[in-house]
Write a structure and sequence with these properties.
The chain is of the alpha+beta class and about 120 residues long. The chain has one domain. It has three helices and six strands, in the order αββββαββα. It has a two-stranded parallel ribbon. A hairpin with a 5-residue loop joins β2 and β3. The N and C termini lie far apart (about 35 Å).
Length: about 120
């Protein structure tokens, strides 16, 4: 992948705000360092977005078809290294999830963004 610089904190904050504004009905989830869903930090500016937590899938891997799991893991690692990643995925259970049978996995490495905004 070459030498790709990590996106700085301010740019990732703007990206998060833009993604949330562009997709006001998107499913949004907080993910802990082990890749499992976690409670949404109060500092994340959600409005009409749908939170995923509590019932059903425990991770993004539970939501996508098996063939899409390796690319999701690769995107997770890319976001850790560079600050953001995006891939198209196919969801496994659209009857369980309030969504069609495909979607987009977008991850911003926002742990320090949220941590700093609540301290």
């Amino acid at each position: 992948m070459g030498d790709v610089a990590r996106l700085d904190r301010e740019l990732r904050e703007r990206m998060l705000e833009a993604l949330l504004a562009q997709h006001p009905t998107a499913m949004v989830v907080a993910i802990d360092a082990s890749g499992l869903f976690a409670p949404m930090p109060a500092a994340v500016p959600l409005t009409t977005h749908r939170r995923i937590h509590g019932v059903g899938p425990r991770s993004v891997l539970d939501m996508v078809v098996p063939a899409d799991r390796p690319p999701v893991i690769d995107a997770w690692l890319q976001a850790d290294a560079h600050g953001a990643a995006q891939i198209n995925v196919r969801l496994v259970a659209p009857s369980v999830l309030p969504r069609t049978s495909s979607g987009k996995f977008q991850r911003l490495a926002a742990r320090e963004l949220v941590r700093q905004s609540v301290n």
